[in-house]
Fold this sequence. Notes:
By secondary structure, chain A is mainly α. Chain A has helices spanning 22-33, 46-71, 80-105, 111-119, 136-157, 163-191, 195-214, 224-231, 239-256, 282-292, 296-317; strands at residues 267-269, 274-276. By secondary structure, chain B is α+β, with helices and mostly antiparallel strands.
Amino acid sequence: MYGNAYIDPNEKAAGILAGEDMQKLAEFEARIARGEKIEPKDWMPREYRKQLIRMIEQHAHSEIIGALPEGTWITRAPGFKRKLALMAKVQDEVGHGQLLYSAAETLGKSREAMINDLITGKSKYSNVFNYPAFTWADACVIAWLIDAGAIINQVANAKGSYGPYCRALDRICTEESFHLKYGHDNVVTLATGTPVQRKMVQEALSRWWPPIMHFFGPSDKISNHTEILMRWKVKMATNDDMRQQFLNMYVPKIWDLGLTVPDAKLSKNEETGKWEYTEPDWDEFKRVINGDGPCNAERLAVRRNAEERGRWVREALNTSESKYMVPFA
Amino acid sequence: MIKSLDPRVTRAEIELDNAIEPLKEMDQWETFEVFHQKRRGDQHMHVGIVHAPNAEMAILFAKEQYGRRGLSVNIWVVKTRDVFTTDYDDSDIFETVPEKQYREAGGYKVMDKINKYKKSVKA
Ligand SMILES: [Fe+2]
Ligand SMILES: [Fe+2]
């Protein structure tokens, strides 16, 4: 997901399984425990379906909205090669969105309904994309570190239990490795360049650090709810575990370049093997995810505009013989 | 009108407050299943779906979605609603297949017999 699915921590765990057929539930859980995948027409608990739709849909929206801050720099990427590469990356992200919408619609929510929920602000998407990419260096930091975070999340989720989501993620992860290399290459170029370039990339890193720390979401309190989702292999790792994994893999690489992470407390506790850091500002996270970030309004207005101005073309192409059927896989 | 960091957005002259009618059913068309062949001689493989208003557009979208990297020589598309499938609930119809060793090369082991025969002839 470009970030973990945002699950409201206040949602009650009680009653999740109320009214389920216990025999079928046992078979379903046994299948998952054996490492087998669940396919679209299989019996599944209501909560499994609901959480997967929410999660895959949010992931899809994140890919689509994520194309906006990065797309900001397509026309001004330095040099022809970087313009080509950024266009290719942004096209990949939109393609990821499409693959994920397809996986979600196998669970019974139509693509129209998902798009409607996005453009009215009902559905969430990854919070990081509500921040602006002020300079070219911001686009480089996004491509390296936000994609790095996304990969940690996506590799984990690719081992989940829902077949269509896993298949989409396998395809996505292959492409993400290009994004990561491309982003790293750009950051290294700036960091090993002129003093002006170094300053530019340092400032971008400092701007993006708080959103990056927000990326995996607040600590999950281990409730019954998260326990069930982990047993069903919907949620594959806790937010804190993924954040630790990210810090472990990327802070040393950032330091290698002589860049400064804007958190004086950031260090690895050699005894516990865990990273210690200043607790991110979760009030800001909540404020932004609920609509009040620097770019939320623009992002959704741009999406609505695209849907509205393209509508007549889609309608003109529609024929009366067309009939929708939920895809199989 | 949005004044954006993105010159493309500014040029598009978008109102911030631009509520629109919700997308109607079928706005995103129906789906086609996509089969992709990497090189001549390979099997076509099912790779996923595209939404499209007709087969020609489905091919176009399939090329963008599944053929933009690596090797490709051929793509097929077929409407999802034209595909017939078995049910996972009926997958027991395949259950005894792996037992049918008489259909497998590995079900035929002759060396023991040959060696025994050779030994007996020599003796
Ligand atoms: Fe992506
Ligand atoms: Fe990416």
